[in-house]
Design goal:
- The strands form two sheets. This protein has a three-stranded antiparallel sheet with strand order 3-4-5, with no helix packed on it. It has a two-stranded antiparallel ribbon with strand order 1-2.
- It is built from three helices and five strands; from the N terminus they run αββααβββ.
- The longest helix has 10 residues, at 8-17.
- The chain has one domain.
- It is an alpha+beta fold.
Length: 121
């Protein structure tokens, strides 16, 4: 069965939410190649939903896939046994412009695609 491509409107929503910055290193992706990464890989049943997608630069995307253990610890890869990517926190290294508050720290991405600060309970 052929995999369905990521719809452009979903790609646009991910780019807008993540401010055209790599969530792992914070690099601006305004003129750099952008990679929309599936936290729960498509091969493991991951879907094109906002809670499962993050924006990465090419270098960070390669690092995530080449270092899966660390990527799981940082929340960039979610186990296929997790009930939902929206419940797995990830480390946001992204710092926005001065006019937008910094997002550095642990966050969860809700099913609606919105970020929320995560606190260990």
């Amino acid at each position: 069965m052929k995999k369905k491509p990521l719809p452009q409107r979903v790609r646009d929503q991910v780019q807008e939410r993540d401010g055209l910055r790599c969530v792992r290193c914070g690099m601006s992706l305004v003129i750099q190649p952008r990679h929309v990464h599936h936290r729960l890989p498509r091969s493991g049943g991951g879907e094109h939903v906002l809670s499962n997608l993050i924006l990465l630069c090419a270098k960070c995307h390669a690092t995530v896939h080449n270092s899966p253990r660390q990527a799981r610890e940082d929340g960039y890869i979610v186990s296929r046994y997790a009930d939902s990517a929206s419940r797995v926190p990830l480390w946001y290294a992204q710092a926005h412009q001065v006019s937008v508050r910094s997002r550095v720290g642990w966050h969860v991405i809700g099913d609606d695609g919105q970020l929320a600060a995560w606190r260990k309970t």
